[in-house]
Every structure is written in C-alpha cells, then in structure tokens.
Amino acid sequence: MAATAAVSGAKRRLRAELKRRLAALSAEERRRQSRLLTQKVIAHSQYQKSKRISIFLSMQDEIETEEIIKDIFQQGKTCFIPRYQFQSNHMDMVKLASPDEISSLPKTSWNIPQPGEGDVREEALSTGGLDLIFMPGLGFDKQGNRLGRGRGYYDAYLQRCLQLPGPKPYTIALAFKEQLCHQIPVGEHDMRVDEVLCEDPCEAEGRILCEAP
After folding, report:
1. Pairing of β 132-135 and β 91-95
2. Less crowded by CB within 10 Å, the N or C end of the chain?
3. CA distance 122 to 107
4. Quick one: residue 65, left, alpha or beta (phi over 0 = left, psi -120 to 50 = alpha)?
5. What b/e readout covers 64-79, taking b as 16+ CB neighbours within 10 angstroms?
6. Contacts of 118 (CB under 8 A, 6+ apart)
C-alpha cells in the first residue's frame, strides 16, 4: 500500500508540473510542434501501412490532431475516435464518418467532441480491431511509460485490446517536447506505448526533460 501511495503522490506532483509547462506554451508554439508532428505521422511507416486507426480529438494542451484526421480520410483509411463513459473508466473507439462531422458532435464536460451515448456507431474492437492507436497523455519517458490524466481510460482500453485474438495495435504517443520526462512513475496497471513521437528524438539532450519530483 505504501508503494502504491508513493506512486500516486509522485504522479500527482508530476501532473502539476507538466500542466504548468503546457500552460506556458504559446499558441504559436503549440501550432508549430503540431504541424511538425503531423508531417512525422504522415511519413511514418506504421501509419502508412495501417488501415484502421484510432485518434483522439485534441484538447488545447495537446498536439493538434485535426490535420492527421483529414489525412486518414484522404488516404482511405478508417478513423475511430474515443467515446468516454464519465461514470467509469470505460472507453470505446467509435467510427467517425468524416472530418467535417467533428464540429457538429456534442461536447463533453471536458469540452471534447464525442458522439452521444444514443448515437449508434461501429465500435472498433467488435468489428475487426485496430492497427494503430494514437495516444494522448500529460507526460512520457523514453521507455514508453505514459502519465495520463488519472482516469485510466487508455490503460483499460489497451488491456481489452490484449484480450482479443490477433496482433495488438501499435501505439504512438503524440507529445510536445515539453512533455518528455526522464522517468514516469508507474503502477501495475499502467500500459506502455510502443513509441513516443515528438519534435526531437525522445532521448533529446536533457534540455527540457523533467524529473518526477
């Protein structure tokens, strides 16, 4: 129990530090890094060979995903987006019909567009699974450890993916370089990502890497 409490405390302190770092980023800098990552994604071999892709609709302090979503449709791939259940840590990836649809989706209390509960849509895991999942988060380290916002949606979803037959989806985190950390504190249910995509190589010279307090 003491170890669990220590990890929880370290995560809480690191979340606060990362939120401060993200709040200090200008809108122009967020756009610049987002444009760069969009180019990296489109050139990425895993992206190019993937047919069924899930991607988050970004909040203000996350890499902007709008142009990646447009490219998914331009390339004839199938796009899935999260639908969170706020009374639990359950999340489904449901099919998005077009990029234009996003602006008409209802918004959650987090100001994230998502289809309503009564909106019947194709769900990724029951119709063939996913090839690639783009992961949000607050912080990441070069071992692929991820610090989310504390609700456990993606960790629980990746566990569900592992229970299905066939290859598991490849996971790519999209991060501002300010979100890179030397070491993320992890608990037993935390799932690593396969790759962290950011402006610099993720072992980036330590200029902007943060320690877990």
Report:
1. unpaired
2. N
3. 20
4. alpha
5. bbebbbebbeeeebbb
6. none
One-letter-per-residue 3-state SS of 96-149: CCCHHHHHHCCECCCCCECCCCCCCCCEHHHCCCCCEEEECCCEEECCCCEECC
Q: Could you tell me whether strands 52-54 and 132-135 are parallel, antiparallel, or unpaired per DSSP bridges?
A: parallel
How many angstroms from the chain centroid is the CA of residue 17?
A: 19
User: Which ranges of 24-44 does DSSP label H, i.e. alpha helix?
Assistant: 27-43
What tens digit of pLDDT does each residue of 89-125 get?
899 999 999 999 999 999 988 788 999 888 999 999 9
d(CA 99, CA 37): 19
Q: Residue 43 corresponds to which tokens in the numbers above?
A: 């050139």
Instruction: List CB contacts of 47: < 8 A, sequence separation 6 or more.
Output: 41, 53, 132, 172
pLDDT digits (tens, 9 = 90+) for 14-32: 999 999 999 999 999 999 9
Say yes or no to pLDDT of 2 above 60.
no
Choice between 5 and 71, residue whose per-residue pLDDT is larger: 71
Confidence at residue 88, expressed as pLDDT on a 0 to 100 scale: 84
Name the burial class of residue 211, with classes exposed (0-12), middle (13-18) and buried (19+) by CB atoms within 10 angstroms of its CB.
exposed
Model pLDDT for residues 46-80, shown as the tens digit of each residue: 999 999 999 999 998 999 999 999 999 999 999 99
